[in-house]
Each structure stands twice: as structure tokens, then as C-alpha cells.
Amino acid sequence: MFSFRRDKTGFFVTIILLTIVGGTLISTLILLIAGMAQGNWKEYLLSVKWVLGSAWVACIVTVLVRLKIFKTQYERMLARRKNESDPQSSAQEADVSRSPE
Question: What average pLDDT does the segment 91-99 reach?
Fold first, then answer.
């Protein structure tokens, strides 16, 4: 189940991607409708291509940023686990060296 508290980055990245897609859809439709109203919609194709290309680049950048954030969070988690396990292992080694055999 989705937990907003655990995955804030994923939530906000989803909002950003939906905003990009929504803006692209609306602007493309506006350009095409304006072109149809003027009678020559093909004049607006270059603008539509720019909108779609820009949206594609924005989506790729957003996903790459999310992957970088995920990698950073994963590395922090691994470092935290390593730090938590090191004191336990050194304490166990100290107990073994103190035990009379």
C-alpha cells in the first residue's frame, strides 16, 4: 500500500509528471483547435512538435532526477545498516575475547 510518509519523492515526481502530461495535452489541443479554426492546422505542426519534444525531454529529466534521488536514499540506507551492524559485531568480538575458555 502506498504511504505518503515513506515515499514523498515518488508522490511529488508523479505529480510533476502528471502536470507535464496535462500541460502538453492541453497546449497541443489548443494549438490544433486554433489551427482548425483558422482553416490551416498544418501551420501549427512545428509548434506542436516543439511542445511534444519539450515535454518528452522534461519527462526524461524528471525520471533521471528521481533515479538519482533513489540512488542517494539507497546508499544512505546501506551506510546506516553497515554502521548499525559494525558496533554489534565489534561488541560480539569483545565478548568472545573476554570469555574464559
Answer: 54
8 Å CB contact between 35 and 43? yes
Max alpha carbon distance in the chain (Å)? 96
Distance CA 46, CA 44 (A): 6
Answer yes or no: are the C-beta atoms of 35 and 41 closer than 8 Å. Answer: yes
Residue ranges in the chain assigned as alpha helix (H)? 8-38, 45-98
Taking CA atoms, 9 is separated from 13, 34, 63, 78, 80, in Å, by 6, 37, 11, 19, 20
Q: What is the mean pLDDT of the chain?
A: 85
Give the number of other CB atoms < 10 A from CB of residue 28.
17
Q: Which of 55, 5, 9 is nearest to 28 (CA)?
A: 55
Grid coordinates given for 58? 522534461
pLDDT tens track for 70-87: 899 889 889 988 888 876
Q: Which grid coordinates are listed for 101?
A: 575458555
